[in-house]
Amino acid sequence: MRLGPAGFKPKRRWGQNFLIDPGALSAIAAAFRPSPGDHVLEIGPGDGALTRRIAPRVESLLAVEVDPELAATLREEFETARVRILEGDVLSFEPERLLADAGAGPGHPVRILGNLPYNIATVIILRYLTRHDLVRDLMVMVQREVAERILAPTHTKEFGSLTVLCRSFAKVERIRRLRPGSFRPRPRVESEVIRLALHDPGGAAGADPDGYARFVHECFGQRRKTFLNNLARVLASEGDDAHERARSLLAAAAIDPGGRPEEVPPEGFERLYARLKSPPEKRIDSPPSPV
Ligand code: SAM
Question: Which of 95, 125, 101 is CA-nearest to residue 195?
Fold first, then answer.
């Protein structure tokens, strides 16, 4: 078993728990379904356990690793014209630039793969989730709790803005659960590999993904309050006659104003955002114009 360069000590601040179970690694690589035309962006390659299994089977792979010691050994083992190692914090790179560097362009989105450091997994998912134009899918390993939030059914405490956004912008699939014993050093939590196949939700959410993401986050601002009160608070910051408008928007989107945000499925949020963004003359919630 190799774990980085000689004398290497895994660093907690970078979430360095290396997957060492060969069966799990092979299963993850097979589930990724690498194909010769794929351009892959790998985040956090570590000692290259997944890189080794994927790089020979795809057109190109760009791996971003923050740890200089690991980046140096990865370079020695892998770097060719097709496989490149970029040293740095993935969050410090501008997403479009990084995706373009990985080979994304109009009509050929890249694929993202990563056993993500637990502390930045949701940030990475949210950052790339809305880029279906440049990203085909993300197959990522996350803490089990994060996978459960993403896949949560309505009416549960796990259902929240992460659930709504992931399911508005992707088809999400569980791939495999992993126990702490499959890693060195052992993490304190269980992990799960999931695949997010990105798509355009269409409508207002598709036209303005960043605005939709902000809106969904705000709707969950006070989970214990009704959807009506949460929406009125969101609208109040826009200076509207908040309660009345919130009530008619919810009616137009067929959402129970007395329910809680976690009772509304992603399609409900998409309908509501479409009503909110429709021009005044087309708003179903607006009063009929005088004749
Ligand atoms: N892919 C390897 C595996 O499956 O065994 C390593 C996974 S380990 C959980 C996470 C890796 O991400 C580590 O190699 C760590 O150094 C790297 N990493 C942590 N934070 C990072 C960041 N902000 N940008 C890029 N890589 C990061």
Answer: 125
